[in-house]
Every structure is written in structure tokens, then in C-alpha cells.
Design brief:
heterodimer; A: Aldehyde Oxidoreductase, domain 4; Aldehyde Oxidoreductase, domain 3; Aldehyde Oxidoreductase, domain 4; 6-stranded mixed β-sheet; disordered N terminus; B: alpha+beta; Enolase-like, domain 1; 5-stranded antiparallel β-sheet
Chain lengths: 737, 260
């Protein structure tokens, strides 16, 4: 049950340390949440809505409860505490009450001896639905019936907006929003809905403690926020709900919101048996939030010499059925809409709406991905309109310390945008490979569709940036506890979720660096033994965990100096510089800053495109990323490659398709993610410009490559095809028809 | 669910006659997906993996008899690749190496998906499917064997035991379009062979395979003829318009290869 205490051999901050979890993961020995087993456990299954919008007339469980092996069938009547929950706004029912708002919304739960029995019983639950017209289009949502007339996001300091289905409407006014330039370029852009597509589906195990409480072992991103949402629904005090981190098979934002946590606990407490829930792949597509599909209208005005004068940007985001983190995504999309460029004037409007489409929330890049795609396409258009080299245009406008963002926030920390641009631009792509070649090194790959016919090469360039850590006044902190023995070993407790990004190694490197000893262990992550670490999200975990572990180690050393020869045990909480909310009317900062810090990535991409068939091959990617300071350079490069691959997927193939809110490609047969043949080699340059406010000068590194790679690949495809390509993923039809 | 595991063909045919509802399984790359996704719950499964007669291939009087358990990996890497190059190319496009080690041509025909990758190359070689039962065996041309989307001409008590063909030795090729560069289900696929006549058959562009033929000297109009013979639809994998366009382009390119 308990995870083995993990240990690294060597390694201090800045050293290349091989990952301890890599060999077991490659060999199939790593225990993921879906591998959890305890004697006597039952299997839970979730009955989900087949409709995207319907009224529930009745639920009849009588036949299901009498099925063989079934121990419990639960509906909303069986939720003892709060009937709704939510990451930021409790607008989502634990189990549907009188209506369903999206395809796959949980309606009832079954626990049975065998998962097949649970599924069979769920089939026998008779739910009578009265289908309603779905709000399926984000632009029509504002004129449709209000899905949440009670307006769950109102009263949180956002701009008042009485229109139907508005989750958040944000306007940033900077300088003179009507300022004219010598040249203007306009465009309309769309981004489809991407899935996190983590390989380890949602899974966990809930174990009743026999005293009314429950232990939940689950793959998640933030243990303590799970507990804060689970306990009130179970009507339990926080201490009686203990969340333990189980092996996580990828997260990318999709495990910020709850999946099986409350459901598993309800079944376990009801049956007094451990209950395991594992989603299958199809269920996983409805089991977590996705990247917001976006529509964007942009106008860039510039002087003849290329200097931006005014940027006008309107963003519409489809938040789907519930709020999740849409308010923050809408704000982030607006904050980073211009890209890392200085403009004295701007008008940015961002709106997230409710629809009956799949709920959207956090995903790697968090709003900045969508706007980067549009903004960088606009910069290329502007360069073409002015006859200026696209790289020169970007350098001319690059943000630097001292510049002011459209929110009025001055850049006080590290902002090496020009350095990133120059470094990426200086990378030399390989020369075109001569023909004939093995088809797997041509567009279309193993499909054998060309020997070189129709193939054109294109080079693209893009720059993207986003914030590190939580913003707009969120009380963002991380705790760490250090037990330091006089025998020169230490045990670190930190609830930072290891989601595959490698924070485990970071924590150990920091502790060894501070304590000056090698024998440092990391205790299993759980809520009971240490305060919150915050979320493994927003590219914040390295910074925050490093800060907390550093402070706890230093405190432990001080304590040990006071009590020589004794074991000491201290806990410390680290906070990054405080942020404050944006003014709801002007979108301007109300304090010194709305965002903590920023990280940039510039990318050069070479693609080959079969212009007759619309098939593509990304040949090479060169990236220069602003990383503050690399705690472990190998892991940083791994994040750049992985983040690039995820952006490549969005650029070329990854999209959740829906019809009237119903997902039509909920499988890895039809929702495709890049294979090794789709992903090119990535040449990475790490720009180390220490962040003054961060421990060791670190910055988060997970998101910037995802923010920019979709835009950079699209730019290369435009160069190869001469087409506008204003929508991602780019479909073959967009290139050749 | 009962799993019946015969070790001889005679036993397999007897079991199929006794249990016509039993689903035949060979590599399991289709059936196991259906089971795992809870899309099928057959009462019985007839496991053919232990039937030696269904392995490999044999030659008889200039004809090839490909047993139904012949895997894509065996076609891709074995001696058949010289005699059946389009089928070998098609085999290389199937799934991942793991899938190609398990998947069989018998399974491809049994599933009868319009996207079945083995079907177009077999059709342009005018292959015949051997269907066997305790009543005897019969042969059905591939294009007649597939009767519709996931439907075939197999009788309830029959098993697919082999595919027969006489290699034409004609220059031939197979091409397949997918949204990524490996491991895809065909958005559209095409096999073309050229000797005295031009022969083409496509996948994912009609409910059942159609063999399109033309005299060799009508190569210039052949791409249009192939595109016209298709009956593609719009679905999550591609549009009707794209599929027809791609068939024209693929046929032009295939002709360049096989007429070179």
C-alpha cells in the first residue's frame, strides 16, 4: 500500500541527475494509481449522461441493486454533505440532481465485486431523461438560455456582466485603445479543444478507516485542494479525509479538478469496503476538463518601422458546462494576448462562456497557448505587410525589464526575450535530406504516400511567454517539513505532486544542497503529515517546492545548532511575492503586480508538407528557453521536448470533436497524439537569467514550449504552403483543398 | 464467456458447427478491443491460435495459399514481400510492430472494415477467400466476400481458413493516408497494380471494396475513374471531398510508380 521511500544517489542544484523513476516506468514496474490493489476491495463504476443537455425525470435503481455482486448503487440522494463541488466555484453536482449539462456527466455510482458486475449493474439503472436543446456554439451562448442563472462566478471581484452564460468577461485597456498606426493587419483565428491525453487514466482507491473517515489514494495534482473539496461533500471534517498521492501517469492540468475522489469515498463509506475506480480511455475523455476551444479576432497596428502602436484583441473561450478554472484561463489568455512584445496601447477583451460542451479548464499553457497562436500569426502578417524580417520585427518589439505590460504591470524580474529570440534564430537547421529516402522520413510517413512528389519545405518562427505560479491575488504557498537526524540523514515531507515532471528530484537536490548531506529521503506525499504544497500546475512547482524545502532545511539546521545531537523536525511555508487582482473595469493592476514572473520560449521549426495531400512532417525544432536557472538540465530539456510534442499535437492532429455537445472521437483510435515518427529532434538552448525573486533564480519550464510550439509549427506550415492556416489543428483539407 | 481452443482444423470446424454463435479470435487486435471497450460480449469465443493448419502459407501449382493466421509481420518481413509487394507495404502501415506481430489477414477479412488495410492489395491481385465448414470449402473473390461495412459472406458455421491468389508479378503499390505519420486507421487508402490492365482498389472510401480496372493505355483517365468509383462519406476521420481528392492524387502517384 505505502509507496517505497525514494532515494537518489547524488545531486545538488544545477547538476544533471538521472531520474530515479525512469527505469521502472520504462520497464513497466512503476506502480500507477490504476495498479493499486488491497484485499477485499470492490470496484466502482460511474453511470454517465448520454446527453449533453437534459432534464432528469426519474432514476430507478431497483433492478441494479439486486444484480449479482453489487454492494451499492448511489445517486445524489446519497451525498451526505454538500451536493456540489468545484475547483474554484462549487457549481458542479457530485452526482446529477435534476439535470445534466454535458455528455458524460456523472449520474449514479455502483460498487460491485468485479468491475464487469459494476458496469452491468450501471446498465440496469433506469434514468429517464427529457432531452433539451444543447447550447453547443460558444458564440450563440450569450443569446441562449442561461445554463447557470444563479451565476456562480459573480461576486468574486470580476466585471459585472448580465449576459447569459458568461463565466467571466474581462477588458484590459492600456494607453489609448484607439491609437492609429501607419500599418494595420487583422485576422480571425480558431483553436480546437485539446485533451491532456495522459496515458494513465483517472484512477484511485478509497479505503474506509473504520472510524467514519477515509483514505483516498489517487493520481492528482494537488492533494490538499482535493481534500478541501471532498470533505464537505462527505460531511466530514478535513482531518477525517486523508489524500495520498498514488502513481500519476501524466497530468497536464487535467487532474486539477476532481475525478473519482468523492465518488470512490462515497462508495467506500457506504459499503465499509475499499473501493477502486479506474476510468477506461473512453470514460477518461469525459472524466476531466480540456483545453478551451477559442475564437479570436485581432488587429495589430504598427509604425512603418515595425514598432507596435496598438493591439486590439477579442477572445472567446468555450468553458463548457461548469466553471472549473475558466475565470483564470480567460484572464491568462488576455494577459498574454500580445505575446512578449511591448505595445504602448492595447484593448483586450476576453470572455469565457458556459455551453453544453465538455467542460474546459486547466491544460498546460492555460490560455496563453490559444492567444500565442493568434498573436504570432499576426506578427508574421505584420512582418509581411511591412516587408520586415519576422525575427527582426520580434526583436524590435521584444519585452525587456522595465517595460510595462498591458495590465500596467512593470517588468521587475528576469525577461530575456531578445536573448531567446537571438539564440533560437541562430540555431541552424539541418540541410534538406536528399531523395530518395525511406518513406518514414517524408510527410505521410509509414503510409507510403509520396516519394517526394508535392513536398515543400517551410521554416517558421514564433515566440511565446506566460506567467509562473498563480496570479491575481491568489494566496499561493507551499509547505515543506524536514526531519534532520544527528546521524546525517534527513527525511523531507512535501505534498508536491510528482506528476511525471520530476519535482521529486528537485526536492532532493535542494535538500542535499542546503543540508550538505547525501542521505536525503522524500516521504510519500499525503495530506496528513504536511501542509499544502499547492498545485503541480502553472509551472510553479519547482520554484515553490524549492523555496519551501530550502527554508525548511535552513530552519532545521538552525534548530539543530540550538539542540546539538538531537533529531529536529521543522515545517516551513514559502510564499512567492504577493500579487493583487486586476481592476474589474480597466483590467489594470491594483497593486505592484498581478503576475509573479514570466518565462519565454522562442522556437524555430522546419517542416515538410505534401501540399497535394495536406500531409505534414515536422523535420526539426530549435528552441531557446528562458529557464531562470536549470535545477537539473536533463529534466529541463525533457520538459522542453515533451511540451513541444504536446504543442505539435495541437498544431497537427489533436482535437476533441463534438456534435451537439456529444464527443465523437473519444478513443486513441480517433483522437490521435503524436508518435515517434511525428516528433522531430529538438535542439534546446537554455537561457539562464536568474529570476531575482525565486529560490536559486529558478523559473518554471513546463509550459512555455507548449505555448509556443503550436504557433511555430503553424508558421512553418504557412511558409511551406502559402496558405493562411488560421485554425489549429491544421487539417489536410486546409492545406490541399 | 467460454473460450473454445481447438488444436486441429477439423476440431475447429466441428466446434464452429456446434456453436455457430462463437466468435473466432486469432490475433485479437479487433476482438479484444471490442471486448475491452465493452462493445461486444459474445457467449463463446473460438480461439484459433492453436490450430497449426492456420499458420503460414503454402504454394500449390503456382498459386499461393495464405493461411488465415498469417500475420502482418510475417508478410512485411518474410519472403512474400517480393511476390506481394503491395500487401507487404500495406502490412507495414498496420498499427505498431506489436499489432503487426498479432494481427492476421484472416482477422482483417473477418472484421470486414472498409478501412481493412489488407483488402485493397488482395483485391488487385484478384485473391479469393477460402471459407470452410464441416460441409466443405468454397472460395469467394475478396470483392464479393466483403458485403458491406463490417459484413462479409461467411455462413454461420464457416471459418476463414485461407486466401488464395496467383501472384500477378505486376508492379504494384499500396498507399495509406492518416492524420499522423504512423499508427493510423486509413482516412483513405489505395492499392494499384499494372500489367496488361490497370487495377485499383481503395479503402475507407466505400462501404465495400470495388476493383476498378482499365486498359493500360487509359492511364491518364484512370485517377478520375478511381475517384468516381468511390462513395466516400464525411466522418470524424476525414471529409468526403478530401477523400475523393486524395484518391485522384494517390492514383496519379501510384501510376507513376507502377508504370515507371
Amino acid at each position: 500500500m505505502t509507496q517505497a521511500v525514494r532515494q537518489l544517489q547524488v545531486g545538488r542544484v544545477g547538476e544533471l541527475v538521472p531520474r530515479v523513476d525512469a527505469p521502472p516506468k520504462v520497464k513497466g514496474e512503476f506502480a500507477y494509481a490504476s495498479d493499486l490493489v488491497v484485499p477485499g476491495m470492490l470496484w466502482g463504476h460511474t453511470l454517465r449522461s448520454p446527453w449533453s443537455h437534459a432534464r432528469i425525470v426519474s432514476i430507478d435503481i431497483s433492478e441494479a441493486v439486486s444484480m449479482p455482486g453489487v454492494h451499492a448503487v448511489l445517486t445524489h440522494d446519497d451525498v451526505p454533505g454538500q451536493k456540489t463541488y468545484g475547483l474554484e466555484f462549487p457549481d458542479q453536482p457530485v452526482l446529477a440532481i435534476d439535470r445534466v449539462l454535458y455528455y458524460g456527466e456523472p449520474v449514479a455510482l455502483v460498487a460491485a465485486e468485479h468491475p464487469e458486475q459494476a458496469r452491468r449493474a450501471a446498465d440496469r439503472i433506469r434514468v429517464e431523461y427529457e432531452p433539451l436543446e444543447p447550447v453547443a456554439d460558444m458564440e450563440r451562448a450569450l443569446d441562449s438560455p442561461d445554463l447557470h442563472p444563479e451565476k456562480p462566478t459573480r461576486g468574486h471581484g470580476y466585471r459585472e456582466d448580465d449576459r447569459a452564460n458568461v463565466v467571466r468577461h474581462l477588458v484590459i485597456r492600456h494607453g489609448d485603445p484607439d491609437a492609429e498606426g501607419d500599418v494595420s493587419v487583422s485576422g480571425y483565428y480558431e483553436v480546437g479543444s485539446q485533451d491532456q491525453a495522459f496515458l494513465g487514466p483517472e484512477s484511485g482507491l478509497a479505503v474506509p478507516d473504520g472510524e467514519g473517515g477515509v483514505d483516498i489514494y489517487v493520481a492528482t495534482q494537488w492533494l490538499h485542494v482535493d481534500r478541501a473539496q471532498v470533505a464537505p461533500c462527505l460531511d466530514l471534517p478535513l482531518e477525517q479525509v486523508r489524500i495520498h498521492l498514488a502513481g500519476v501517469g501524466g497530468a497536464f492540468g487535467g487532474r486539477e479538478d476532481l475525478s473519482m475522489q468523492i465518488h470512490g469515498a462515497l462508495l467506500a463509506l457506504h459499503t465499509s469496503r475499499p473501493v477502486k475506480i479506474v476510468y477506461d480511455r473512453e470514460e477518461s475523455f469525459t472524466g476531466h476538463v480540456h483545453r478551451h476551444p477559442a475564437r479570436m479576432w485581432c488587429e495589430h497596428r504598427a509604425r512603418r518601422d515595425g514598432k507596435l502602436v496598438n493591439v486590439r484583441f477579442r477572445i472567446l473561450l468555450d468553458g463548457g458546462a461548469y466553471a472549473s478554472s475558466s475565470t483564470a484561463v480567460a484572464s491568462n489568455a488576455a494577459s498574454f494576448a500580445l505575446g512578449p512584445y511591448e505595445s504602448p496601447n492595447a484593448l483586450i477583451e476576453s470572455t469565457a462562456v458556459y455551453t453544453n460542451n465538455p467542460p474546459c479548464g486547466a491544460m498546460r499553457g492555460f490560455g496563453a497557448v490559444q492567444t500565442c497562436f493568434a498573436a504570432e500569426a499576426q506578427m508574421d502578417r505584420l512582418a509581411a505587410a511591412l516587408g520586415i524580417d519576422p525575427v527582426e520585427l520580434r526583436l524590435l518589439n521584444a519585452l525587456k525589464p522595465g517595460d510595462v505590460l498591458p495590465t500596467g504591470q512593470a517588468i521587475t524580474g528576469s525577461m530575456p526575450v531578445a536573448e531567446c529570440i537571438r539564440a533560437a534564430a541562430a540555431l541552424a537547421p539541418p540541410a534538406p535530406e536528399p531523395l530518395p529516402r525511406d518513406v518514414i522520413r517524408l510527410p505521410g510517413g509509414a503510409g507510403n504516400t509520396t516519394n517526394g512528389d508535392g513536398v515543400r519545405r517551410g521554416v517558421g518562427f514564433a515566440v511565446g511567454f506566460k506567467n509562473i505560479a498563480y496570479s491575481e491575488g491568489f494566496d499561493d504557498y507551499c509547505a515543506a517539513r524536514v526531519r534532520l537526524s544527528p546521524d546525517a540523514w534527513a527525511e523531507v515531507h512535501c505534498a508536491a505532486a510528482e506528476v511525471g515532471q520530476g519535482v521529486t528530484g528537485v526536492i532532493l537536490q535542494v535538500a542535499r544542497t542546503e543540508l550538505g548531506i547525501d542521505d536525503v529521503r522524500l516521504a510519500p506525499g499525503q495530506t496528513a503529515t504536511v501542509e499544502s504544497a499547492g498545485s503541480a500546475s502553472a509551472s510553479r512547482m519547482t520554484w515553490m517546492a524549492a523555496g519551501a524545502v530550502r527554508d525548511a532545511c535552513r530552519a532545521a539546521l538552525e534548530e539543530q545548532a540550538r539542540r546539538p545531537g538531537e533529531e529536529v523536525d521543522v515545517e516551513r511555508i514559502y510564499r512567492h511575492p504577493r500579487t493583487t487582482p486586476l481592476d474589474p473595469e480597466t483590467g489594470q493592476i491594483t497593486g505592484e503586480r498581478a503576475h509573479v514572473a514570466f518565462a519565454t520560449c522562442a522556437m524555430k521549426v522546419v517542416t515538410e508538407v505534401d501540399v497535394d495531400l495536406g500531409l505534414t512532417r515536422v523535420v526539426w525544432i530549435g528552441a531557446a528557453q528562458d529557464v531562470g536557472r536549470a535545477v537539473n538540465p536533463q529534466q529541463v530539456e525533457g520538459q522542453i521536448e515533451g511540451g513541444t510534442a504536446q504543442g505539435l499535437g495541437l498544431a497537427l492532429m489533436e482535437e476533441i470533436q463534438t456534435r451537439d455537445g456529444l464527443i465523437t472521437n473519444a478513443s486513441f483510435t480517433d483522437y490521435l497524439i503524436p508518435t515517434a515518427l511525428d516528433m522531430p529532434p529538438v535542439e534546446s538552448v537554455l537561457i539562464e537569467d536568474p529570476e531575482p525573486d525565486a529560490p536559486y533564480g529558478v523559473k518554471g519550464v513546463g509550459e512555455p514550449p507548449t505555448v509556443v510550439s503550436s504557433a511555430a509549427i503553424a508558421s512553418a506550415l504557412r511558409d511551406a504552403t502559402g496558405r493562411e492556416l488560421t485554425r489549429i489543428p491544421v487539417r489536410p483539407d486546409d492545406i490541399c483543398l | 464467456m467460454d473460450v473454445l481452443t481447438p488444436t486441429t482444423l477439423v476440431e475447429a470446424l466441428r466446434l464452429k458447427a456446434e456453436h455457430p454463435d462463437a466468435w473466432a479470435i486469432q490475433g485479437g487486435t479487433d476482438l479484444m478491443v471490442a471486448l475491452n471497450f465493452d462493445r461486444a460480449r459474445p457467449e463463446r469465443v473460438l480461439n484459433l491460435n492453436e490450430v497449426r493448419e492456420l499458420r503460414g502459407f503454402t504454394r500449390q501449382n503456382g498459386s499461393l495459399r495464405l493461411a488465415s493466421g498469417l500475420t502482418y509481420a510475417e508478410i512485411e518481413h518474410g519472403e512474400l514481400r517480393d511476390e506481394l509487394p503491395a500487401l507487404a507495404e500495406a502490412s507495414r502501415t498496420v498499427g505498431s510492430p506489436q499489432i503487426r506481430n498479432r494481427g492476421t489477414i484472416g482477422g482483417n477479412l473477418g472484421t470486414a472494415s472498409p478501412a481493412g488495410d489488407a483488402i485493397p492489395p488482395l483485391a488487385v491481385e484478384r485473391a479469393e477467400v477460402e471459407c470452410a465448414s464441416v460441409r466443405g470449402t468454397r472460395r469467394v473473390p475478396v470483392t464479393d466476400f466483403i458485403t458491406g461495412v463490417k459484413r462479409n459472406a461467411l455462413e454461420q458455421d464457416e471459418l476463414i481458413t485461407a486466401v488464395w491468389l496467383s501472384p500477378s508479378r505486376a508492379p504494384q503499390t499500396f498507399m495509406k493516408i492518416g492524420p499522423r505519420n504512423a499508427m493510423v486507421i486509413a482516412v483513405v487508402s489505395l492499392a494499384v497494380a499494372a500489367d496488361d490492365e490497370l487495377r485499383a482498389c481503395f479503402g475507407s472510401a466505400a462501404p465495400r471494396p470495388v476493383l476498378v480496372t482499365a486498359p493500360r493505355d487509359e492511364a491518364s483517365s484512370f485517377p478520375e475513374r478511381v475517384a468516381e468509383a468511390a462513395a466516400p462519406i464525411d466522418d470524424v476521420r476525414g471529409s468526403e471531398r478530401y477523400r475523393r481528392h486524395a484518391l485522384r492524387v494517390l492514383t496519379e502517384r501510384a501510376l507513376k510508380r507502377v508504370l515507371a
